[in-house]
Amino acid sequence: METIDYKDIKAVLPYFLKHKFLWTSYDEQSDVLYVHFKENAISDDSEMTKDDLIIRYEGGEVVGITLLNASKRM
Description:
InterPro entries: DUF2283. By secondary structure, this protein is mainly beta.
C-alpha cells in the first residue's frame, strides 16, 4: 500500500504536485473538502490521521484526501 508521511496538512501538499489533475468539491454544511487525484475513483480503503485528514486508497494507491473542518484550516 502506498503511504504518505504527514505531520500536518502542509506536509501533504507536495503530494498534490505529483498529480496533473485534481478534482475538488466542498460541502459547506458539513465543512468538508474532498480532493480527488483520480477521476471517478472508488476507494476501497482509508485511514484517518490525527489532524482530521482522511486519506483514501484504491488498490493500494492514494486516490484522494478528505479534509474535515476545512474552513478552520485557513
